[in-house]
Amino acid sequence: MKKLFLFIAFLFAVSNLTAQIYDPVSFTTSVKEIGGNKYTLSIIAKIDKSWHIYSQNVPSGGPAPTSFTFPKSKNYKTIGAVVEPAGHEVDDPVFNMRIKYFADKAVFTQTIERKTSDAFSINAIVFFMVCNDNSCLPPGEKEVKFTFKKSETPVKTEDATVALTEEKNTDLPAQDESITKQDTTNNTTNSVNTASKDAPESSKKTTETASGKTAPEESLWTLFFFSFLGGLAALFTPCVFPMIPMTVSFFTKQSKTKAAGIKNAIMYGIFIIIIYVILGSLVTAIFGADALNALATNVVFNIVFFLLLLVFALSFLGAFEIVLPSSWLTKIDQKSEMGGAFGIFFMALALAVVSFSCTGPIVGTLLVQAASQAGIAPIVGMFGFSLAIALPFALFAAFPGWMNSLPKSGGWLNSVKVVLGFLELALALKFLSNADLVLQLHLLEREVFLAIWIAIFTVLAFYLFGKIQLSHDSPSTPISVGRLSLGIIVLSFVVYMIPGLWGAPLQYISGFPPAKQYSESPNGFGNSVSTNTEKSDLPEGAESGPNGIPTFHNYDEGLAYAKKVNKPVMIDFTGYACVNCRKMEERVWPDPKVLAVLNNDVVLISLYVDDKRPLPENEQVVSKITGKVLKYTGQKWSELQILKYKTNAQPYYVLMDHNEKDLNKPSAYNPDINAYYNWLQEGIRNFKK
């Protein structure tokens, strides 16, 4: 537990680091009335020595251009486009093109016409990329603010007054007496996320299923797949995407031969993988290989990570930015200049640090998911994530012509992170649901969970259709085919979930919402009893379990009833927060032939290893595993499973006779319906011999 709290403290410390890595550009604003209710809005960029930003017009394949977003409002209208200064034009050796840039100071102006005499403000967004002769920082966004006081005369007169709020950088001289400086709120929004889906919860133990596969193997492959998708999502974020052409161009142009450039780029990708795998190894080392599985049903773990993922989601949506201390990057950047393999390693480390505001929430989410599994899950997750990050650098170095097909950086990168923010918000709810299930509080029952998910994904659909905009989004433009298609998929998903409020099984998302029996209406609205088993027909001590199957939760009572009716026993080691358990109950057990066996041919005993009900004092014994007193019902069943079957994986199914001897080899998670049915039939045949 001490290790758990140390790790949690570390994660919260990281999430609360809000100092900007580098901030070589600051912006101030000014307003000048030019008559006829028209005003010139000036955005003044003050750029640190040796740094520069780029023009609004940059050739395809180059750095991210500077752009400005003025939100639509009835209070004013923009006249023409933003006018930029003369700047400097050079033949850039890295991007191999002629590029216009601005250094030291640049003043951009936008003309507007005032439409109201009421007080109002304009919160515009500047999107820009800042570079020096050696490196570039990921593109960022900053908000610039113009404030207009109420005019005492109608706006059609020429006596309209403008008052401005001065905030900082007062060292910049005013352009004339009618201009007052104001600073921006320094809200950089380089954050993104990854939707990530659930990672199956199973132990490191390699308990073989009836189909010949192992649950841990399937679990790790699933984790790897979604981690790889998370890495791909991270590529299309403002912190990583613009770095691809710049980094590849550096290796190919600074190397003496093309082969050397490809070699260095591949080495760069390998070092990226090594860095993230080391991170996964540290998580495994902190907890130990077998301790991670216990976290899946730990109430503190689930609540803490619900809050942590909520913080990540808000970061993705632009509420704030998560970054690392600037001193880290300074030291690493110095090391990267050493050259050779050593220098390339520190270049890869610099990428990991400088892109943390975008990749940090994704990495954190993957580690949270991996922490609900055991063994090498964190290592596998980090390998999948880093592989997706590293591949483009090697591929584009080998085939530089492919870079011409890359889309230009722009506001669409922010849309990616917002979408991932919504997905992160939905995922966070699963951890809160786990805590509620383990404690059996019934505060977040199935209907409530689905209602919240429906709301989240409905808002996401409206966002994709352009009906909702966040403060840092680009102005409305025609919706692309890709965005429209994704919006249709999300809206279809919403429609799919709605029948779940009335008891529909929703097999495609089984394991995420609470089970049907954990709801206000377990049998669907309008049905007071199960379709399979009338309450009056239930054996004494049994309950109506998943799919209406008569289920015992007391081992001795279930075994006694099995002897009475002369049927084999099926022990179901399960958990309230077990994702794979719900998948089996909602995808495999409802199959007619499987359901018939579970209803008629076996006696089901479901033992919840995370059951927090206190044990009677006469049943509280000292654990043979930990040496501590077993205080909860779930601890008793977990002890039984570990001592007798040498595993702590859930689900875990055992068919046994009345002498408590196994009838065949136990089965773990196995979504193959036919294989699971054959396993049931094998045990029943052995019982009848």
UniProtKB/TrEMBL annotation:
<dbReference type="Pfam" id="PF11412">
    <property type="entry name" value="DsbD_N"/>
</dbReference>
<keyword id="KW-1133">Transmembrane helix</keyword>
<keyword id="KW-0732">Signal</keyword>
<feature type="transmembrane region" description="Helical">
    <location>
        <begin position="411"/>
        <end position="428"/>
    </location>
</feature>
<feature type="transmembrane region" description="Helical">
    <location>
        <begin position="341"/>
        <end position="363"/>
    </location>
</feature>
<keyword id="KW-0812">Transmembrane</keyword>
<feature type="compositionally biased region" description="Polar residues">
    <location>
        <begin position="523"/>
        <end position="533"/>
    </location>
</feature>
<dbReference type="GO" id="GO:0017004">
    <property type="term" value="P:cytochrome complex assembly"/>
</dbReference>
<feature type="region of interest" description="Disordered">
    <location>
        <begin position="523"/>
        <end position="547"/>
    </location>
</feature>
<feature type="compositionally biased region" description="Low complexity">
    <location>
        <begin position="184"/>
        <end position="194"/>
    </location>
</feature>
<feature type="transmembrane region" description="Helical">
    <location>
        <begin position="299"/>
        <end position="320"/>
    </location>
</feature>
<dbReference type="GO" id="GO:0045454">
    <property type="term" value="P:cell redox homeostasis"/>
</dbReference>
<keyword id="KW-0472">Membrane</keyword>
<dbReference type="InterPro" id="IPR028250">
    <property type="entry name" value="DsbDN"/>
</dbReference>
<feature type="transmembrane region" description="Helical">
    <location>
        <begin position="448"/>
        <end position="465"/>
    </location>
</feature>
<dbReference type="GO" id="GO:0016020">
    <property type="term" value="C:membrane"/>
</dbReference>
<feature type="transmembrane region" description="Helical">
    <location>
        <begin position="486"/>
        <end position="504"/>
    </location>
</feature>
<dbReference type="InterPro" id="IPR036249">
    <property type="entry name" value="Thioredoxin-like_sf"/>
</dbReference>
<feature type="transmembrane region" description="Helical">
    <location>
        <begin position="220"/>
        <end position="244"/>
    </location>
</feature>
<feature type="transmembrane region" description="Helical">
    <location>
        <begin position="265"/>
        <end position="287"/>
    </location>
</feature>
<feature type="region of interest" description="Disordered">
    <location>
        <begin position="157"/>
        <end position="213"/>
    </location>
</feature>
<feature type="transmembrane region" description="Helical">
    <location>
        <begin position="375"/>
        <end position="399"/>
    </location>
</feature>
<feature type="compositionally biased region" description="Basic and acidic residues">
    <location>
        <begin position="157"/>
        <end position="170"/>
    </location>
</feature>
<feature type="compositionally biased region" description="Basic and acidic residues">
    <location>
        <begin position="198"/>
        <end position="207"/>
    </location>
</feature>
<feature type="domain" description="Cytochrome C biogenesis protein transmembrane">
    <location>
        <begin position="223"/>
        <end position="433"/>
    </location>
</feature>
<dbReference type="Pfam" id="PF02683">
    <property type="entry name" value="DsbD_TM"/>
</dbReference>
<feature type="signal peptide">
    <location>
        <begin position="1"/>
        <end position="19"/>
    </location>
</feature>
<protein>
    <submittedName>
        <fullName>Thioredoxin family protein</fullName>
    </submittedName>
</protein>
<dbReference type="Pfam" id="PF13899">
    <property type="entry name" value="Thioredoxin_7"/>
</dbReference>
<dbReference type="InterPro" id="IPR003834">
    <property type="entry name" value="Cyt_c_assmbl_TM_dom"/>
</dbReference>
<feature type="domain" description="Thiol:disulfide interchange protein DsbD N-terminal">
    <location>
        <begin position="36"/>
        <end position="145"/>
    </location>
</feature>
<dbReference type="GO" id="GO:0015035">
    <property type="term" value="F:protein-disulfide reductase activity"/>
</dbReference>
<keyword id="KW-0201">Cytochrome c-type biogenesis</keyword>
